[in-house]
């Protein structure tokens, strides 16, 4: 192989690696199956900048931004795939299902155990699509029933004895309107 051919091959390989690296940075929704659940769509993975060490998470705070978020379905619209549903801000970047009401769910998974002691759930900010009841299920097997979420944007605060878990699922049991969902989910605790 001549020097010029070797240089061309090297430049081509470097260019392909750079292109692959840039493509890997852009996140695409991933569909997969959980044991016991229907197909899921990951709508957000925690960015490496969001991951914090024990020093930053020593106090109790909202640890939802540190979780990988997946949902039963998602309505693709202007804010496609609702990445803001667990970012700590109750706004219009929430999760709206694709025609689901009862049975729709959102799951937060942490890469390490977390000690949690509360969850705040914010309903969608419109008066026609409302969560009327639901269930929180933790990977330790415990469940907590959830009453109707306030439709005006106030959170439904659920507090409980501290538990160490790696995931939490909120399942909508009853809802009104064509699509259910959440404006925001906050999970209060510490990363272990």
Keyword list:
Jelly Rolls, 1 helix, globular, 10 strands, 10-stranded antiparallel sheet, 192 residues, mainly beta
Structural features, described:
By secondary structure, this protein is mainly beta. It has a single domain (28-191), classed as Sandwich (Jelly Rolls), CATH 2.60.120. Helix content is 12%, strand content 43%. The chain contains one helix and ten strands, in the order αββββββββββ. A hairpin with a 4-residue loop joins strand 7 and strand 8 (143-146). The termini are far apart. Mean pLDDT is 79; it is low at 17-37 and 48-57.
- Tell me the fraction of residues in β-strands, as a range: 35-45%
Q: What is the overall number of helices? A: 1
CATH architecture: Sandwich
CATH class: Mainly Beta
Average of the residue pLDDT scores: 79
Pairing-aware structural class of the strands and helices?
Answer: mainly beta
Q: In percent, how helical is the residue content?
A: 10-25%
CATH fold assignment: Jelly Rolls
Radius of gyration: 20 Å
Order of helices and strands: HEEEEEEEEEE
Low-confidence stretches: 17-37, 48-57
Biggest β-sheet description: 10 strands, antiparallel
User: Number of DSSP strands?
Assistant: 10
**How many discrete structural domains?**
1
Distance linking N and C termini: 55 Å
At the fourth level of CATH, the homologous superfamily is Galactose-binding domain-like
């Amino acid at each position: 192989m001549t020097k010029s051919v070797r240089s061309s091959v090297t430049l081509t390989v470097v260019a392909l690696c750079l292109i692959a690296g840039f493509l890997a940075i852009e996140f695409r929704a991933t569909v997969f199956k959980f044991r016991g659940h229907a197909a899921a769509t990951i709508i957000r993975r925690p960015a490496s900048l969001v991951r914090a060490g024990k020093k930053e998470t020593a106090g109790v705070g909202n640890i939802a931004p540190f979780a990988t978020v997946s949902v039963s379905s998602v309505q693709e619209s202007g804010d496609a795939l609702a990445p803001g549903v667990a970012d700590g801000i109750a706004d219009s970047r929430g999760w709206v299902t694709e025609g689901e009401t009862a049975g729709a769910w959102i799951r937060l998974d942490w890469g390490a155990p977390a000690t949690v002691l509360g969850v705040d759930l914010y309903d969608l900010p419109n008066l026609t699509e409302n969560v009327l009841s639901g269930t929180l299920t933790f990977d330790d097997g415990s469940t907590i029933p959830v009453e109707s979420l306030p439709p005006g944007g106030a959170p439904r605060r659920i507090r409980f004895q501290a538990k160490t878990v790696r995931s939490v699922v909120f399942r909508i049991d009853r809802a009104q309107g064509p699509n259910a969902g959440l404006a925001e989910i906050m999970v209060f605790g510490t990363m272990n």
